[in-house]
Amino acid sequence: MPQCKYGDETTRATAKDRTIRRHNKKQCICYDVHQPSSRQDDAKPATPIVEGVVATSGSDANTDTYTISSDRAWGYNDFCEFIRSKGQDPDKVSFRWGSTSTPSGLFFNKINDVKPLPEAVTEASFTAENLPGLYAAAEASTPKPKHSSNKRATVIVWADPQIGKTGRRGGTKELIERSTAIRDRLDQHLAGKDLQRILFADAGDGIEGFESGGNPMFTNDLSLAQQLDTYGTEMFKFINLAHYHAPVTVAGIPSNHAAWRCGKQNLGRPADDLGLLMHTQVEYRTADRGMDVQWVRPATYDESVAVDLIGTRIGLVHGNQFGPGQAVAWWEKQTFGAQASATADVLVHGHYHTFSANVAGRNPHTDRQRWCLGAPTLDNGSDWFRTVAGRDSDPGLLVFDVTDEGFDLASLTIISA
Ligand SMILES: [Zn+2]
Ligand SMILES: [Zn+2]
Predict the structure, then answer these.
(1) What's the total number of domains in the chain?
(2) What is the value of pTM for the model shown?
(3) CA angle, corner 354, sides to 216 and 324, nearest 5?
(4) 237 and 217, same structural domain?
(5) Cα–Cα dist 34/394, whole Å
(6) Is residue 221 part of a domain?
(7) How far is the CA of 387 from the centre of ligand 2 (A)?
(8) Residue 395 lies in domain
(9) Residues within 5 Å of ion ligand 2, judged at the Cβ atom
(10) Is the predicted pLDDT of residue 287 greater than 60, yes or no?
(11) Which of 49, 198, 353, 389 has its CA 20 to 30 A from that of 247?
(12) CA of 47 to the centre of ligand 1 (A)
């Protein structure tokens, strides 16, 4: 059956489209069907139709519909006023409205399907029900650590766990076992160090996500929501352990696997990263448990961050911003752009799933040699990286100290399971 090119009320035709349809015989196949009000041979009195769709959100039952008679046709503002009189905020509901005249000169003002707009995702939406792992982990928070004035601080670089992915090292079960073993060794490593502070640097790709190419439906063993909960839980457990030893600063940055994206296309701003969303969720937990934890993340449109750690600046960036082996070249350019990492003494990155260390000139502000450190991975194996670069180092956690003399090379170690 041919369709009217202007659609009908059910196909979201605009009021203007419908008016054209009703007045133009040549353009409208349903001209005769719809009985336009302006036709001279119309036997009925004129029945001008004033209508407009403000918003629609499906056609659920349990929605409010009203017809109000009046001596005039209502406009949009009248309907908003009416909604207010019913105790609802017109900005927070969707509704359809229209007016029809009657032969007696009265108008029927109709408002249909008044219903609340879908709630935006807010922090309140993240409850124990949808982040069960994180909430359970937060119950076992460590007590506030003692403060020390010892001139030593430790940096823990947590990079690329890509939670949810299965690879040659296994799936989520193996990742959690490995993570737990690494935390035990980290605990021993930190014991007796008398640290002034610990920086937990999350170098990104905390989750595998579903938009990174290949077919993640077959290579992931967790849904996106499960990945986020497990990521938050693992992050909390590392921070919680560190907090047993010293006050903690947590730094996070956006990354390619955790970005809000559709295929290769990033959506939103760098700050809309799902990993950073989980940083906010874990921050709520460390705050409501009264823990001594500070949180640092980049400015909304920045992708790197720098943290002052007892006088040494640690820069953090994921690594997808530069090609393999190009970290130092990228860092040099940051200096001219005056980005967060421009003044760093040590730049730390992930993304390349393999440990690397390079000297990178001298910091004119401190006259100290600068270091650029690539972190090994914590994931289940990256066939992508093995294919591209031919190597994929053993999984491990990069840990090093800074003292009042700056980066302490002798302290650098990789803790593996
Ligand atoms: Zn990665
Ligand atoms: Zn990456």
Answers:
(1) 3
(2) 0.70
(3) 85
(4) yes
(5) 73
(6) yes
(7) 15
(8) 123-415
(9) 205, 256, 320, 351
(10) yes
(11) 353
(12) 65
